[in-house]
Write a structure and sequence with these properties.
Helix content is about 30%, strand content about 25%. It is an alpha/beta fold. The radius of gyration is 21 Å and the shape is globular. The protein starts with 6 loop residues before the first strand and ends with a helix.
């Protein structure tokens, strides 16, 4: 990318949950923007969005939306990325895509800046932002891998509804409000939502857990689980890494949590693992069992780091370490990571 003082930036999906975070983080980090172009579907055309004290009108996303644009931050879904990003590249833009459209394309870098910034180049105009749950997993995994090697990973996720989009947030909010108006004394069956009122999720999410994120595949894993497996291997550069995942949707608005079990090539103690994680960029260790200090979604919300706690040796297996990992899925898990990639592209190196 040609070095400039300021850049023309387009945000695809500007009115969505991640699009809103793009704009707030660009403003927070004072990204050097000359022209800002907000793009969304026809139903959002003309909507005004404030940015740095000015109002910008949303434009309809089209093939001709990218003239004179330097950087595209895309979060409009995989189908729209596949349709429109080639036109952006043809117009000369570099696209950082938050969808799943290009993540496993061998020609497209899949980047977490703290982990594999060197993989950004060469690119062909598109750089993929990983899945939200993958991003927060690979930071501690990378830290441990560099110190002791990775042998096997077992990940169980507890993913907030915001990871499924704005409509899913509203559906859970509506269910919670409806159920909270009932008698607070719990009786079996009284906390059920009628099936006809469940639209976005496969089951009621309020006061419930759903062990299915995305569709099931022939191997009985969900597509979300296999995303984590394949993306982790690609980002860490370990194509044969033994890793398995179970992904669960939980009734939390923002921030994903994960239980990560790591088996290493070389034994590391809890104390060594803690030191390794503390020294890794982008990680904050919160781990004081005596004071009930550990990461929780309510505290990670709105913050940039990946938080790690409950660090302990796995007594059931040789060279095992257990971690509890929490991060804001709309910030580090999506918008922040994409903007960090953009910052890496424009930095003096």
């Amino acid at each position: 990318m040609k070095k400039k003082n300021k850049y023309n930036v387009a945000v695809m999906g500007a009115t969505g949950a991640v699009g809103e975070r793009f704009l707030s983080i660009l403003e927070e980090r004072d990204f050097p923007i000359d022209e800002l172009r907000l793009l969304a579907s026809e139903r959002s055309e003309g909507r005004k969005i404030a940015f740095k004290g000015m109002e910008y009108a949303v434009r309809v996303l089209s093939e001709d939306s990218f003239r004179d644009i330097d950087i595209v931050l895309a979060s409009a879904g995989a189908s729209r990325s596949r349709e429109f990003l080639p036109h952006a590249v043809k117009a000369g833009a570099v696209c950082i895509d938050n969808s799943s459209a290009f993540r496993m394309d061998k020609a497209v870098p899949l980047i977490v800046p703290e982990v594999n910034p060197g993989a950004v180049e060469p690119h062909s105009g598109i750089i993929a932002n990983p899945n939200c749950s993958t991003i927060q997993t690979v930071l501690p995994l990378c830290a441990i891998h560099r110190a002791a090697g990775l042998k096997r990973i077992v990940v169980s996720t507890y993913q907030s509804v915001s990871g499924a989009g704005q409509g899913n947030i509203l559906e859970m909010q509506g269910q919670v409000m409806k159920l909270s108006r009932k008698d607070s004394h719990y009786r079996v069956g009284e906390h059920a939502i009628p099936e006809k009122e469940i639209v976005k999720f496969s089951h009621q999410i309020a006061y419930n857990l759903i062990p299915q994120i995305d569709v099931f595949l022939e191997n009985h894993y969900t597509r979300e689980e296999m995303k984590m497996v394949k993306e982790t291997r690609k980002i860490l550069g370990i194509p044969d890494l033994a890793i398995t995942a179970t992904c669960v949707r939980v009734p939390v608005y923002y921030a994903h949590s994960e239980s990560v079990n790591v088996q290493t090539d070389r034994k590391i103690t809890r104390e060594e693992a803690t030191g390794i994680l503390r020294s890794f960029p982008g990680i904050t260790v919160m781990d004081d069992p005596g004071s009930s200090l550990y990461p929780m979604p309510i505290e990670a919300e709105g913050r940039d780091d990946v938080f790690v706690g409950r660090i302990r040796e796995d007594e059931s297996v040789e060279n095992g370490i257990n971690l509890w990992v929490v991060a804001d899925n709309l910030r580090k898990g999506a918008a922040l990571n994409a903007i960090q990639i953009a910052e890496h592209l424009i930095a003096d190196r």
